[in-house]
Design a protein that fits this description.
alpha+beta, about 35% helix
């Protein structure tokens, strides 16, 4: 069984309006596609893409190899 709910892109104007209404804004960091997909499906307002995984997980000195 799946739940089909319509997802809308969140703009900076929408975030500003949410802030003015004192609504809570959810934001999570995703280091790869599979995690970003799960976070998106969970309905999180903003997904921060973190490329520091190159340093932390892969051991590179810069983030360029996986950017």
């Amino acid at each position: 069984m799946s739940v089909n709910k319509e997802m809308k892109r969140v703009s900076t104007a929408m975030l500003q309006a949410m802030k003015e209404r004192q609504e809570k804004i959810s934001m999570l960091t995703s280091y790869d596609y599979s995690m970003a997909k799960m976070v998106d499906q969970a309905g999180v307002d903003v997904i921060l893409i973190g490329d520091s995984a190159a340093n932390v997980f892969a051991g590179y000195e810069t983030t360029l190899p996986i950017t």
